[in-house]
Amino acid sequence: MRAYDTLHSLLLACVTDMGLTLPEKLTIEPPKDERHGDLATNVAMVLAKQAGRPPRELAQALADAIAARSADVARVDIAGPGFLNVTFTPAFWQATVAQALAAGEAFGRTDTGRGRRVQVEYVSANPTGPLHIGHGRGAAVGDSLARVLRAAGYDTQTEYYINDAGRQMLILGQSVWYRMQALLGREVPEPEDYYRGDYIIGIARELLEEKGRPFFEAAGEDAAVDACREKAMADILAGIRKDLEEFGVEHQVWFSERSLLERGAVDSAFEHLRARGLAFDQDGAFWFRSTQYGDDKDRVLRKSDGLLTYFASDIAYHHDKYERGFDMVVDIWGADHHGYVPRMKAAVQALGREADDLQVILVQLVNLLRGGEQVAMSTRAGEFETLADVVHEVGADAARFMFLSRKSDSPLDFDLELVKQQSMDNPVYYVQYAHARIHSILRKAAERGVAPGAADAAALAPLTAAEDLRLAKLVEQFPDTVAAAAANLAPHHVSHYLMTLAGALHSYYHSTRILGEAPEVERARLLLLTAVAGVIHAGLGLLGVSAPQSM
Predict the structure, then answer these.
(1) What mean pLDDT do residues 260-285 have?
(2) DSSP of 264-321
(3) Disulfide engineering: 223 pairs with which of 100, 120, 219, 452, CB 3.0-4.6 Å?
(4) What span, in angstroms and rounded, lies between the C-alpha atoms of 418 and 406?
(5) What is each CA distance from 121 to 253, 261, 264, 266, in whole angstroms?
(6) Does the CA dihedral 528-529-530-531 come out positive or negative?
(7) Mean pLDDT in residue range 311-337
């Protein structure tokens, strides 16, 4: 049992013995200064009124009861107005190491999700051009979040929503057609709104070779634009799939927006809203009564010219998600869509779901730098650093870890030169090197004929130094870190934890003798390091980052 659970169980037993009820506002957390113990709790202060006793007097009674009840507790100190500072025995922390080693790859996995069905939709970039570095951050967040949710016991499916219908697809087709006409020797005015990247010229040239000049010389503009759109969309989407695969990102389902229209899913969602009195016809248009959910005005779903709004497709798409049986839907969007979140939550409620059945994670922009200088990015102008270029230059591991090194709704500076450095200033190198450093020690031990042996209580008993116990305590925090990352839909909790663990390992390496100590101490520390390596390996796996054994 972990430290938090152990203390909570002790408090529950002691408080119940006193004829009292454990309060809901109870806090149990590590003190700011580790010299004050392993965990601190305010139980005496929040229970004082119920007990009819001064907080410090009650704290002393609880301290005595805890000490008498548990051999896992080394001491309980009373601080300030009545805080209890609890310190566990070295044997308790040694048992944590044994548990981690016994669990192996399963250590850190929990069942907090209880099989709840969750869908995570991410990237979902319009197939109008290659993925840029901003898409890469959303891809890393979504893919890592799915891994974290699965580790926490959620039944998780990943999905990419292909925006293959609507105005942007028409502009894409027209952009290729404009370039195609130049290849055919025609002079046409430059459109005001079109995609200018060199990739558009490449698509036009390849399509001309595939279909031949006679086809485009004879085809009407509508047929030509249709052919250009289909070719461009297929090529770009294939490139997106390839880029994500090389980035280590998986989508189990690729869902077509066009399919919603073709099978009548939009009309089905509209009828659902109409049946609940949440949609109406006015001025030739079809409206969603979003003001019932706090919106400042009702929203058009189908315009008077018969064209659907983006919001209409989004409602139909989310209706389809819930029809597929998901308990919770997680959408990962760019931060510029923050104003759309309340409207989408209103739609979800109108579909008969709770607002919290939709969770939206906003991903802030990435400031791409090269040696401190800004790199310009614009999909329309063709001036962008593609995700594929970044991965080729710095590697998928470095890119993913950097994307996940901060909370997703915080801006991120990504300096290509810094990330390529093999130094302790590079976060991914810092963590990966901790894993490699441990395996280097284990190899040296094996060369000397030293094996850690079984991780039983006797073998781990020599782990009594403060440095040993600090590492053991950090190992113990891994399952709670995974659970917190899942509960908060925030995979950066894992990267922050790994940075702390790696820092402790590097400090341990420089301050603590491992090989050449007394045989029993040597073996115990090798077992401890094996547990740390296992946790780093598992944590990096949740981020989609490799854990090399040598560097």
Answers:
(1) 94
(2) THHHHHHHHHHHTT-EEEETTEEEE-GGGGT-SS-EEEE-TTSPBPHHHHHHHHHHHH
(3) 219
(4) 16
(5) 9, 20, 22, 19
(6) positive
(7) 96
Query: Residue 256 — pLDDT band, cuts 50, 70, 90?
Result: very high
Of residues 420, 516, 519, 524, the one with CA closest to residue 467? 524
Query: Measuring CA to CA, which residue among 191, 180, 188, 194 is closest to residue 128?
Result: 194
Q: How crowded is residue 154: how many other Cβ atoms within 10 Å of its Cβ?
A: 22
CA distance 222 to 177: 10
Higher pLDDT, 264 or 423: 264
Q: Which residues are within 8 A (CB) of 533 and not within 5 positions of it... i.e. 6 or more apart?
A: 435, 438, 439, 442
Take residue 428 and report the two structure tokens written for it: 């991914």
C-alpha to C-alpha distance for 222 and 460, rounded to whole angstroms: 76
Q: Which two tokens stand for residue 241?
A: 């799939």
CA distance 386 to 160: 19
pLDDT-derived band at 376 (thresholds 50, 70, 90) equals low
366 CB burial (10 A radius; 0-12, 13-18, 19+): buried
Asked whether the beta carbons of 164 and 240 are under 8 A apart, the reply is no
The model's pTM is 0.93
Which phi-psi region, left, alpha or beta, contains residue 449 (left: φ > 0; alpha: ψ -120 to 50)? left
Both structure tokens of 368: 């791409």
Phi, psi angles (nearest 5°) of residue 311: -60, -35
Angle at 523 between CA 519 and CA 529, to 5 degrees: 145
Residue 198's contacts (CB-CB under 8 Å, 6 or more residues apart) are 382
pLDDT tens figures, 401-455: 999 999 999 999 998 888 888 888 899 999 999 999 999 999 999 999 998 888 9
In the predicted structure, residue 503 carries a pLDDT above the cut 50? yes
Distance in angstroms (rounded) separating the CA atoms of residues 298 and 278: 10
Task: Give the SS3 label for residue 85.
Answer: strand
What are the tens digits of pLDDT across the range 69-111?
Answer: 999 999 999 999 999 999 999 999 999 999 999 999 999 999 9
> From the CB of residue 386, how many other CB atoms can be counted at a distance below 10 Å?
21
